[in-house]
Amino acid sequence: MLHHLHPGQRFFFALFSSFRFLINLPLLDRPLTLGFVWGLFTGDWAACLGVSLFFELLWLDVIPAGTIIPPNALAPTLACLAALHLYGISSPAVAAVLIVACLPLGRLFSRLENYHRVFCNEGFNSFVLWVKNPGRPGGPAAMTRRSILVMFPINMAAFTLALAWLLALAHLGLPLLAPELSELKLTWPHLWAVGSIGAVLSLRHRPAYAVVLAGAFLAVFSRIIP
Question: What are the angstrom distances between the C-alpha of 101 and each of 74, 80, 106, 129, 210?
Fold first, then answer.
């Protein structure tokens, strides 16, 4: 499956992931921004909006506070969009299967970020020595350069393997599932409703949870009772 991967896809992910740890510019490391840029290249705006909005909503309740590293939503978003584009999938029901398959990538790449932080912590002693003697190597510029030179190629390589795994899985599973799933009347708003659970949890407000549960029950009963 590696021959299906365009070098731009690996660079695309490594570049946008850099906005999580290198250049902290608001909104650039968000799935919606990634989906917008991907849409500019592919023109498939329906899939770009559908997938990127789902992942934008899903992990809104996990914020980068203290030592908490939220799931890397860029990895599953780009992997899913690449698979949809490669296989020419437009059905939200089939896309939902790929979205589920891509979910572990969010945790996988946040774990990778954690390892990177531990690696960077090992340079703390060099930084302390540099503070005492600014003439010696190991200053902030050297630490930043070292961090970039390590994380950028690792992100490219890891995303290449993850995308190859996803494409192989889709190659085996989609021919079996797509005919059955294409008959389901599942739309992008249905997927966004599932993803909005993360947005509701981010409110940290119990009455909001009750409103969502009540709405879910009403939606289910409206389908059961004619």
Answer: 14, 9, 11, 46, 29
